[in-house]
Amino acid sequence: MNAKVEKSGVLVFGGKRRTAAIVIIGLSAVLGAFVLLGSLPSGKIASGVYVDSLNLGGLTREEAIEKISNHSFFDTDSFSVYTEGKTLSIRFNEVEMQTDAEAIANQAFGICRSKNKLANMWHVLELKFSKANIPVLQKADTLKLDAKLSEFGTQLYGQLKQHDVEILDGYVLIIPGKSGCGTNMEKARNQVLESISKKKTDSIHIDLDYEKPKELDADSLYSSVYRQAEDARYDVENSKVNIINHVVGIEIDKSEAKKKLQSLKEGGEAVKIPIKTTMPSVTSEILKQKLFNATLSSYSTKYSTQAENRAHNVELAASKINGTILAAGEVFSYNDTVGPRTLSRGFKNAPVYENGKAVDGIGGGVCQVSTTLYSAVLYADLDVVSRTNHSLTVSYVPLGQDATVVDGSIDFKFKNSTEYPIKISAHASGGTINISIIGTKRDVERTVKLEHTTVSEIMPTVKETQTAELPSGTRKVVSKGKPGYVINSVKLVYENGKQVSSVSLGKSTYKMVPEEVEVGIGAASSTKTDKPTSAANSPQPVASPAPTSTVAPVQTPAVSAAVSTKSPVASNVEGSTE
Questions:
Q1: Average pLDDT, whole number, for the chain?
Q2: Rounded to whole angstroms, how far apart are CA atoms 384 and 327?
Q3: Is the C or the N end of the chain the one with fewer CB within 10 Å?
Q4: Alpha-carbon distance 296 to 281, whole Å?
Q5: Could you say which DSSP state residue 86 is in?
Q6: CA-CA-CA-CA torsion for 372, 374, 377, 383, nearest 10 degrees?
Q7: 516 within 8 A of 357, measured Cβ to Cβ
Q8: Cβ–Cβ under 8 Å, residues 52 and 41
Q9: Strand 276-278, strand 475-479: pairing
Q10: How many CB atoms lie within 10 A of CB 446?
Q11: Which residues 6+ apart lie within 8 Å of 526 measured at CB?
């Protein structure tokens, strides 16, 4: 091996290149050692990190919190503050002062964990030969500490009182305030916590402010006194009306207030400034007098008490909607208000319409209540949102004036289109349903008339069925037919006797029901008759008496219904439609 020692004392192997190689190897070794020694244990606090004399190095964050919590850093249970030559002693437990173990552990864990990885490694190396000390961070109940410091300041400077402004009957009274200790304790509080974190508990200097009452000027006084007049209003909740009282408007004259405020001095006389009041257009008393002061409409229909189940359903449904209150603009849903028609809710089986025929169904009769309500709504001139006529004619109202409902499907809805709440009064007993819409009397007398015109009529066809049960040549009417109709309905509205509107209520289409007849093809009867034998029809529900209208609202003295001259006999059962 060719090697030589140069004058510099450097051992050279094969010239300059060998020298460079040795330098690189040496630097790599140093760098490797730097990286190895400067590495930070995963999930643990760096070595050499202390809080006071407590070593946290090598601990996890959770272990550090537990260790700090179990350590006592102070040999006293109180601290003292001073300012202006006065001192106050405060016990730690009076302000719930305690070591913030979590904050200390988080700060310790963050050492050597900056975004600069090279700096972190260098810092780890430094901590192998030195210490990093973390303050003994404290936390306290801010409100309790501030209260203690404020109490101390009040003893020194007195209690600060701002100018007191009172609104009395006819004037504003301003009682002068008084200088004293300021109310912002943030600076003094931070001074306390910072000193204690450094384990200084004796004679902690704090800064407390001596303040004068905030100056009152005419503009700020006007803003604090001014109140806009507000009308009394109401809200409706759970069918109850709550009146929100009116607000009287208040203001002062700025120029006069400016002159008066010039005499306002600490320790001086109180200042009086006259106020101007403005009454709202609608006071609480006026609103109370307006609410439910008129019957907007009433409508009655008759039902049979002999059909006990049906009568029961009618009376139950009427009780469900009775007392319902709607705010202005609120929409009423018959199905939502009456609820599901089930046996468990008290409804019974009674005839209903289904696929153009009368069958037994739970809740039969509830449609007569919805129909009576629909009629009352029309005469009250409220907005109808959703209405469907029956599939077959009914007898208790004029054709075109009925409203069927189906549980969970077809609904009757209307909107309170007045400016005030309305209440539904519904009662059914003794064979009569009476429904009234009670609200606020309109400014102008209003009358409603209904016109129902027959567009077309379809007479019932005859459906014959042969049967050997009857002698040949005889006929038996099993079920009478029902004519079908298309009815056009219009609502005419009058104010002070003059027509102001004509509202189309749409067309109502009722199905024709064929007459069902059995034709005999059996053996000839031993007794010859000149006329065919007619057996009784299949059982039908007891017919309801003809409907009556008792529409007589306070502001609607002449409500009536104009109908087509055709008055076909209608069925007396109702319910669902197909």
A1: 85
A2: 16
A3: N
A4: 24
A5: E
A6: 180
A7: no
A8: no
A9: unpaired
A10: 19
A11: none
Q: Which two tokens stand for residue 200?
A: 């200084």
Work out the average pLDDT over 532-550: 37
Task: State which H helix or E strand residue 318 sits in.
Answer: helix 308-321
**CA distance linking residue 190 with residue 98, whole number of Å:** 15
Q: Is 554 exposed, middle or buried (0-12, 13-18, 19+ CB in 10 A)?
A: middle
Residue pointed to by tokens 């319409």: 353
pLDDT of residue 9: 37
Decide: 557 and 447 in contact? Cβ < 8 Å.
yes
Residue range 128-142: mean pLDDT, rounded: 93
Please answer whether residues 213 and 179 qualify as being in contact, where contact means their C-beta atoms are separated by less than 8 angstroms: yes
Summarize the confidence of residues 250-264 as an average pLDDT.
93
Give the integer Cα–Cα distance in Å for 217 and 174.
12
Query: What gap in Å lies between CA 483 and CA 509, rounded to an integer?
Result: 11
Q: Is the confidence at residue 13, as pLDDT, over 70?
A: no
Strand partners, 479: 516
Q: List helix spans (H) across 93-252.
A: 101-110, 117-127, 142-157, 186-197, 218-225
pLDDT at 14: 41
Write the DSSP symbol of residue 525: P
For residue 336, give both structure tokens: 């939502």
State mean pLDDT over 145-165: 95
The whole-number pLDDT of residue 42 equals 87
Question: Rounded to whole angstroms, how far apart are CA atoms 156 and 139?
Answer: 26
Q: Of 8, 12, 31, 32, which is closest to residue 20 (Cα–Cα)? A: 12
Give the pLDDT confidence of 352-394 residue by residue, as tens digits. Answer: 877 666 778 899 999 999 999 999 999 999 999 999 999 999 9
Q: How many helices (H) and strands (E) does the chain have?
A: 12, 35
What 537-543 contacts at long range (C-beta under 8 Å, 24+ apart), as own/partner pairs, is 537/477, 537/478, 537/479, 537/480, 538/478, 538/479, 540/358, 540/572, 540/573, 541/304, 541/307, 541/310, 541/350, 541/351, 541/358, 541/572, 541/573, 542/304, 542/306, 542/307, 542/572, 543/304, 543/395, 543/572
- Structure token digits, residue 291: 């609410």
Cα–Cα distances in angstroms (integers) from residue 314 to residues 151, 320, 355, 458, 546, in the given order? 73, 10, 22, 31, 17
DSSP class of residue 83 equals: E
**φ and ψ at 339, to 5 degrees?**
85, 175
Give the count of alpha carbons within 13 A of 192, CB side only: 29
**Total Cβ atoms within 10 A of residue 165:** 15
Q: Which amino acid is at 183?
A: T
What is the b/e burial string over 319-349, where b = at least 16 CB atoms within 10 angstroms of the residue's CB?
Answer: ebbeeebbebeeebebbebbeebeeeeebbe
Q: Which amino acid is at 545?
A: P
> CA–CA separation, 30 vs 106, rounded Å?
32
| Amino acid occupying residue 63 | E
Taking alpha carbons only, the member of 219, 224, 214 closest to residue 177 is 214
